[in-house]
Recover the amino acids of this structure.
C-alpha cells in the first residue's frame, strides 16, 4: 500500500457509538367527568315523532367594552398643538425661502454689476473706439492745456 521509502504508520480506526433512541411512554388516559351533566330535552314534532337530544345554550357574544370618553377639551388642545406646530413650520419655511430669495437677488445684482463693469472696462480700455464718436486723448489734452507743443 505504501511505497518502500515511506515509513509505515499505525492506523487507528474509530467507530461511532450509536445513541439509543429515547423511550417514550404514553401518558395515561384519565377519564374526566363534566362538572354537570347536561339535561336531555325531548321535542315532539307535529307529525308525532319525538326527537331527544341535549339542549345547547345559544352562544352569547362577549359584551363590548365601552371606550373611555375623550373630553372635548383634550381633543381641542391636541388639535391646537398640531395647528401651532404646522404654523411654526410654515413660518420657518417661509423665512428660509425669503432669505434664499434675497441672497439669489443679491447675487443677480452683483452678477449684473460685474458684467456691466466689464463691458465698460472693455469700452474704455479698447484702442479702437467707434469711428463716429469723439475720441479724447488725455495726454494731448493735458499737453495742449499746458501749452507744451511738440
Amino acid at each position: 500500500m505504501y511505497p518502500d521509502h515511506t515509513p509505515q504508520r499505525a492506523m487507528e480506526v474509530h467507530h461511532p457509538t450509536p445513541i439509543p433512541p429515547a423511550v417514550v411512554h404514553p401518558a395515561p388516559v384519565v377519564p374526566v367527568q363534566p362538572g354537570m351533566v347536561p339535561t336531555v330535552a325531548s321535542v315532539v314534532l307535529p307529525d308525532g315523532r319525538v326527537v331527544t337530544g341535549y339542549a345547547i345554550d345559544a352562544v352569547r357574544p362577549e359584551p363590548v367594552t365601552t371606550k373611555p370618553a375623550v373630553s372635548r377639551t383634550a381633543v381641542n388642545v391636541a388639535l391646537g398643538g398640531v395647528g401651532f406646530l404646522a404654523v411654526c413650520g410654515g413660518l420657518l419655511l417661509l423665512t428660509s425661502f425669503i432669505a434664499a430669495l434675497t441672497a439669489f437677488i443679491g447675487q443677480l445684482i452683483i452678477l449684473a454689476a460685474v458684467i456691466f463693469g466689464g463691458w465698460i472696462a472693455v469700452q474704455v480700455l479698447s484702442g479702437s473706439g467707434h469711428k463716429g464718436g469723439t475720441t479724447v486723448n488725455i495726454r494731448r489734452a493735458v499737453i495742449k492745456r499746458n501749452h507744451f507743443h511738440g
Observations:
- The longest strand covers residues 40-44.
